[in-house]
């Protein structure tokens, strides 16, 4: 059967509905990663005011008209405003903590790719066989890690290359026609948005091809590109429907939280906690439904011929 928006969406939400075990494992994995990162940062003893805005430097009083400034005042006026104690404390902490912060970034990247591979492996196994084992989840997560990492680097290289081309083009134009740089910059920005959307749809099946069929990053990219040919609007319809569901859920929770804030007191606190937890679970559920819909599209496109 050829892929369709309705068939993919129905399959995606049905799969998410039957995947509460996988959703729980997904949440637990990210909770463990978050705990490790938070504890690692805590070991560096960050300053208490790290997340606060820097305090404004103390204002200096200008000497009265006709008064002779003292030598200390002249020296102070001739030097730039010194950093505050808070800024100095943060700078010193960053100088000591950057290796641990870098390690935390690496942990987040590695864990993110492993969890992504495990999530896709879970969904594919649930879709293909209806049965999922933890061994298969671990196998998909570990076997696809290198290819997913390669795909991430390739994506960053493509984005960086596009940015370099645009910057060089704008720089060359500024040397020839400086007055047109502003207009061209706006046109480039407006053009990049639809191009980015078009590319994201064409490459939406890239991770699926890597994990589901154990393809390399380049081969996975080619498969996604080929499967989306002639089916771009179908994939875009799936993405738009899932985006609408996500926005609708967020608006509903925001209305509930707003009603709680109007009530005030303990009621507001309880509603804020409940809406926060509900929003988190809803986001995870929608992510599973989205991946399930894309997996259904991927399997149907394979059987229909790419």
Describe the structure.
This protein has helices at 5-17, 20-43, 71-78, 85-128, 134-143, 145-176, 181-202, 206-212, 217-228, 232-263, 265-304. With 306 residues, it is mostly helical. It has a domain at 5-50 and 85-151 and 231-304. Helix 8 (206-212) crosses helix 9 and helix 10 packs antiparallel against helix 11 (265-304). The longest helix is centred in the middle third of the chain and has 44 residues, at 85-128. The chain is globular and about 65 Å long. The two termini are 13 Å apart. Residues 75-80 have low confidence and may be disordered.
Summarize the structure.
The protein is mainly α and 306 residues long. Helices cover 80% and strands 0% of the residues.
- The pLDDT mean sits at 86
Radius of gyration, CA atoms, in whole angstroms? 26 Å
Secondary structure category = mainly alpha
Oligomer: single chain
Q: Beta-strand level of the residues, as a percent range?
A: under 5%
Individual helix count: 11
- The arrangement of helices and strands along the chain is HHHHHHHHHHH
Largest sheet: none
Helix content: over 70%
Distance between the termini: 13 Å
Strand element count: 0
Ranges where pLDDT stays below 50 over 5 or more residues in a row are 75-80
What overall geometry do the principal axes of the alpha carbons give? Answer: globular
């Amino acid at each position: 059967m050829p892929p369709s928006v309705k068939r993919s969406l129905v399959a995606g939400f049905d799969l998410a509905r039957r995947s509460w075990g996988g959703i729980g494992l997904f949440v637990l994995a990210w909770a463990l990663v978050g705990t490790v990162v938070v504890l690692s940062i805590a070991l560096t003893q960050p300053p208490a005011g790290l997340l606060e805005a820097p305090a404004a430097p103390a204002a200096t009083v200008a000497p009265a008209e006709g008064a002779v400034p003292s030598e200390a005042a002249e020296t102070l006026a001739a030097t730039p405003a010194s950093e505050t104690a808070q800024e100095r404390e943060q700078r010193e902490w960053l100088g000591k903590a950057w290796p641990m912060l870098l390690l935390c970034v690496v942990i987040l990247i590695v864990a993110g790719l492993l969890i992504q591979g495990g999530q896709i492996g879970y969904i594919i196994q649930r879709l293909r066989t209806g049965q999922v084992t933890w061994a298969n989840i671990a196998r998909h997560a570990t076997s696809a890690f290198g290819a997913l990492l390669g795909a991430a680097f390739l994506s960053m290289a493509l984005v960086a290359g596009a940015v370099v081309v645009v910057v060089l083009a704008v720089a060359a134009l500024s040397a020839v026609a400086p007055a047109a740089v502003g207009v061209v910059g706006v046109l480039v920005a407006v053009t990049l948005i639809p191009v980015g959307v078009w590319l994201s749809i064409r490459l939406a099946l890239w991770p699926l091809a890597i994990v589901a069929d154990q393809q390399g990053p380049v081969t996975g990219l080619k498969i996604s590109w080929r499967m989306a040919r002639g089916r771009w609007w179908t994939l875009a319809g799936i993405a738009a429907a899932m985006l609408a569901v996500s926005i609708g859920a967020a608006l509903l929770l925001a209305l509930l939280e707003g009603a709680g804030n109007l009530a005030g007191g303990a009621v507001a606190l309880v509603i804020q906690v409940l809406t926060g937890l509900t929003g988190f679970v809803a986001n995870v559920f929608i992510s599973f439904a989205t991946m399930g819909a894309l997996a259904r599209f991927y399997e149907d496109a394979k059987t229909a011929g790419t």
